From TrEMBL, chains A, B, C, D, E, F:
Molecular-function GO term, any one: amino-acid racemase activity
Residues spanning the membrane: none
Organism: Sulfitobacter sediminilitoris
InterPro entries linked: Asp/Glu/hydantoin_racemase, Hydantoin_racemase-like, Iso_Racemase_Enz_sf
Recorded family membership: Belongs to the HyuE racemase family.
The protein's name: Asp/Glu racemase
Length: 219, 219, 219, 219, 219, 219
């Protein structure tokens, strides 16, 4: 039995980053943790159409793995297919956005979200509303960096520090969530810089999945 | 230019019912109102997987109609693809659940929803939460009738009266929404029976679409 | 039968502006649209006492028009008498603030309101709270311009751009509502400048009224 | 200087009941407490039109008393003119519904409201929403008794016990508010019967006004 | 019978300030107002451990005073032991944070809180959430001044003006609460400077307690 | 390093039950799981005074274990000392109420809580409010069973079935939380009976703690 962390975009590069993110947890997991790339997905999930469009292939992908799976983690911050996979599967199902938010709710009273682009913010707001936790949201602010700019790590980290500080000082966030599956390398440094907990969502969700595997032993 | 009311399931029978629902409004619309069946859809939209699964074909269907369209109405109470179609299209886009709820908010202070099955209620709750109007919801109660039972109109109307009265008297709803695209024939009688406004969502959304076509003249 | 758009202040100048605002929609309406001035109203509605004080004359005014009316639109952003007129009249009743907010909820996830003066903001907050949509509000910011300053269109538009940008960039609004019945001439330019939908409330409410007239055909 | 408790309906009988309600507090008040009847008001405030319609005369009535007043209490559970009087007057202004709700928030975690008629419930819901305290509301249930039935004290008390128990046991209210200015005589017995605090709103508001008179000494 | 205002920290200096804060109200109170120092408390209540830790001694302190008490006011802005004392005592129990917030809700539509330190903000947020009034909160901003800096009155007042203005102009607060028991001397000047009501919580709670003593006469 | 599950009451019998609850998870945990009894606690935590009163000894108890601890779980459904322990300790800190609620939020859209006694419900409501998740609460209903009645397992299970069904069918809960640390033996049977997930809070929190231990490897 395995925890499958499924990247619903087709970028192996992103999956590799997720794998590195969860690598340190493997020794503490009672079951293997495997990362997967949804080859049918788009190179990146940037629009609501991408979010909705990957659900079908994601469900099919997970259906094939059902018998081998202890849990599934959907590794995209829009949590595509989360409700649908919960209806389909008998396993523990976690989405990285939901898990990051629930984790943040134990580490601070008001969470801030760092988004890549402002056009994602309305999608996040719908989701925070659907989760019923709008009163815990301090703010959601974008880096507003394009793909090429994100490739420049120095620049990205500078923006992370500026946006994180705005969330902490203006929006009064006392915990910050990285609103994207690909910012793991910055987490520790950003947390040290800001002085408040910074949550990497793939790690938060996989950690929660490990707990669920343990919880399954009580059934 | 046309208002397209798209039934995202493949049942022509359902589309015919929607067509009858909007028929009386055609004389008051500045543009034609056309109903469409999404042949790629499932026979009925019953699960979250169905909801997410029709988005791709629905977007493609609407993309082809874009140049002829004044507005699109998505005629399924789960509003599949609403956010995605808004990102894709330059037309006015309405979903029947959203439009029914917004209409209800002008006809009463707390709306009740009549669902077909209890398993739809959590999906509705996520949606009411995403809309940020949970404080206006009185309750969401299911008929709990299967497809065959729904075919019995007498029985269906009896359940509608019981559930509607529970929403009005116990949940204190002062306006009731039919939470499904196929209950038009019962609307007038149920409203007369309950003594509070009863909203048929396809009609509410198409009415709103007619308004939007007028509003487009101001641009 | 007619849609009556009633300006509850006594300024014919304001009514003329409202008439120009709805003029482009007349061709798309199944019934005539008539604007009315409430001669018993104050020259402008600036205080809560004004809001409450016009309700009596407004109800009387509309009672006389009841038999000729398809719908009434109350054309003041405080929606004076909205609930009372709904109790009194059998027609469709819309208020421009409520209709603008409901329309905004279909065009973006978080709406910002541009108020004329900061002293109106608490009144708006009570209203947004009564509507139960506080989680959809991004912010409400004042132009803080007096009557004479508002007469200077260049200056007014400058302030609109500044306040609109603050709502969009700081409060993260993705749709902006003009919180006053008299800013129609700026709508298109402000929308072009901001790059997010800008809603003129008289137009939004009248559009919704047109839809309601169509909806009445289904009864 | 005097605390004026103004009954905005024209019924001297109701004012007399309010006077008896506040009579026991006179000895504990630093200033006289005077009750007033708004002769321009309707015999009873039953509709939103009544609520809005009394604001003008109420403001005039209070303006004349301004110089003699320490505080005004508006003694109708719809709090007519509360916001307007706060804008007009320099005195402490309290409404009996608002004061009863704020008092309830210190005596229990979820308050129930006993209304006379179900048609008042939507008006109350708008108000609880405008106050931003919907999460503290357990429920609002009507006695559904007409004027003549209310004259029968035995019957009224029976209904109060039934509705109060429903609020306590089904809606899980741990404090109950009498949602009307005229139920003082039942308060003590109902509280004894239900075993949870029961709030009479005229008393709650006048008590708060006494506190405000004391608070004014710090300015 | 006496209103006891209990300072749950052991600083007599703080108690003396509270005594001066309530001194002007003594003449308007039907019973004596006595201030008390909880000698078992810490010198200042700065952490959640302090808040929880004083509850036991506070309950014991108040139990001894029960027979002499009309009401108790807990004079620390974290309202330590409020719910517990309400369970233990038959008297009216008020906390200065709760009372200040409820008072603010009658003086403005959105309240701002001035905290001493940012580390108190999450504690306040939990409390505002538990009160169910998050929609009425404009913001909570810290002075971020240490004990020594607070001793410099000029500097403290400068910060109060800056933070108060930020709450008023950026967060759109129309009433400001001093989120600490020791800022009484600044209240009047800050209110004059800001032009919106400023609430000193010990005074607000004691005023409310005076009202409750009057209300007890109706039982 | 160890996960310490601390029962803050002094009943070894309760601790033994908790130990049996978490026993099946030990094989899946990367570190030992030890249960502890707070000997300074009361025999049962039934009042707010008990909740507040155990915080001091609990903090001291945990401070001694800090160096050996990976995580602490506070095993009482009132989560006494949760915020204080988070301020004091550098370890992962979980409370069983918070963890049960967060877990429920991934297994259903609206959670119901089964309380032992109705007098706990207001305390739970304050907590659900402080967590900001009131919109996800379906209801909180009491078994209303005393200690002796609880000793009768047949009777207790009968009440659990009745109350659970009321939460599911009337309050429309789609996940149920056992609102007490001592109902583990009923969980599986109740879940089978109700057909919706039933959460035992000690297990939920310990599972989450196991995840956090894994997450700590990424730091």
């Amino acid at each position: 039995m395995t925890i499958f962390v499924v990247n619903p975009n087709s970028s192996q590069h992103v999956t590799d980053g997720i794998d590195r993110a969860v690598e340190p947890m493997r020794g503490a997991s009672p079951v293997p943790i495997a990362t997967r790339t949804l080859v049918e997905g788009p190179p990146g999930i940037e629009t609501q159409a991408h979010v909705d469009g990957v659900v079908g292939p994601l469900l099919a992908h997970c259906a094939e793995l059902e018998e081998q799976a202890s849990a599934f983690v959907i590794a995209c911050f829009s949590d595509p297919g989360l409700a649908a996979l919960r209806e389909q599967s008998a396993r523990s199902i976690l989405g990285i956005a939901e898990a990051a938010i629930l984790t943040a709710m134990t580490l601070g009273q008001r969470f801030g979200i760092v988004s890549i682009l402002s056009k994602s913010v309305p999608r996040h707001m719908r989701y925070v509303g659907a989760m019923g936790v709008m009163d815990r949201l301090a703010g959601d602010l974008p880096l507003e960096l394009g793909v090429q700019e994100l490739a420049d790590e120095t620049r990205t980290f500078e923006r992370l520090k500026v946006v994180g500080a705005a969330l902490r000082d203006t929006a009064m966030a006392d915990v910050v969530i990285l609103g994207c599956a690909g910012m793991t390398p910055f987490r520790n440094d950003l947390e040290a810089h800001l002085g408040v907990p910074v949550i990497e969502p793939c790690q938060a969700a996989t950690a929660m999945a490990i707990g669920r595997v343990a919880l399954q032993q009580t059934r």
